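pasting for the record
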Amino acid sequence: MYVSSYTYTLYVTEGNVMHSFYPVIQTSEPTRVAAVFVELFGFEETFTTDWYVSLRRGEHELAVLDATHATIPPGFRDECRGMLLNMEVDDASSEYERLRSTDLPIRLGLRDEAFGQRHFIVEVPKGILVDVIEEIPPSAEFAAAFA
């Protein structure tokens, strides 16, 4: 993998440009899951069917796919479990207050971590977790771990 430090173009192999790289959430309710990211996190739908929804917010992409769709190889047509999506923001405290007033379950309350995060975790439909993170200065113990 080659990275051009001037233009930040990511090459998978020499001369082959990667145009995007994003998670695809497999679920039994793609439109329901996608709606939460549109309504509460400001994503816009860029392609929508009953089995696939492509979302974008600025340069950030996310897709939601019906887990049973034929494009998924047999043996892999399961809903995702244990997925944690990180969303970095400028002010986790204000997002925490905003999202507390919704029906999303808060699974981890707002807290500061020694490794340099103020964050909280909410659960969106189908058991997908979103970790809303604000970078804060790490403790001396963790500062050396950053490159």
